[in-house]
Amino acid sequence: MNGLDGWTCTIFRNESKxxxxxxxxxxxxxxxxxxxxxxxxxxxxxxxxxxxxxxxxKLAGWRRTGRSADKKKTLLQKPxxxxxxxxx
Length: 88
Hints:
Layout: E1 6-9, H1 20-28, E2 38-44, H2 55-59, E3 63-67, E4 73-78
Parallel strand pairs: 1-2
Antiparallel strand pairs: 2-4, 3-4
């Protein structure tokens, strides 16, 4: 629907003591190929407790690239070539 072609993270919830960004980075390494748009996720801003929606993805090297059509969700992406690599 958004014209992007890549691996989409549709559900993510961390119920462990491991940092969410570390879980994201580890999960990326299991993906063997991805479309040209790389990794894609939307974060529903009002449904997270953080004042920085998508912070764990950002720590894992994902970048905010836009908004959903309804403007309620933050669109984050990461190039496939950077899978498993954080920006830190």
